[in-house]
Amino acid sequence: MGHLTELKAQTEACLPEGVVVAVADPTTKDALLWPQEVAAVAKAVPKRRLEFAAGRLAARQAIAELGWGAQPLPAQADRTPLWPEGLAGSISHDASSCLAVVGPLEVVHALGVDVEPNAPLPEDLIPEICRPDELAWLSERPAPKRGLLARQIFCAKEVVFKAQFPLTGALFGFDILQITFHPHGGRFSARFTEPVQAIPAGTEIHGHCQTTTAHVVATVALGARAGIENANFPVCATR
Q1: DSSP string for 10-35
Q2: What is the pTM of this model?
């Protein structure tokens, strides 16, 4: 459980007050699905079913901590969870950890979380994930660190996609987002290089990308009021 405790603490430190983080172990069989959730993984392999169930368990723990009652979290047609009315959330997992973040809509319009193994991104994937400017930036970094930094770029792009999707339903490729890491604090900016539906070109989303002993974890909160990160995100401003 040590890696889960570390993962939870790092994630909590990156999110606004009022957002709850919960973790679960996908390698155990303790998590049970509600009948309304079973269809989403009816044809899945056992490993995927365990991860799905642990993710729902973590999400229910976070929801309970916010004071909501236990309820099913069925998958929608786009495979995202159907969150209880009044809540926003996001779930992520890898082979050893499941992570859920949940917050009330008066705090956040949308949330994104992505967890990845703290291991170099395979070399053949790097050109598929990274834009030419990002590849140039990587080439200036020490060679032993490039694969890990590419993993962080991937994680940052994934989490931005997950955060904006509940608001826009927009699908786009990795090349649309240009990631810039800030020097301190694990913060990053993701710039839309082209317009995506209601999101103008040049729009930036700010997030956090941290490493733990076992994981890379990225978070994005699209704030619902002034003072919360990304409260000026164009789609949020019209809601």
Answers
A1: HHHTTS-TT-EEEEE-TTSS-----G
A2: 0.94
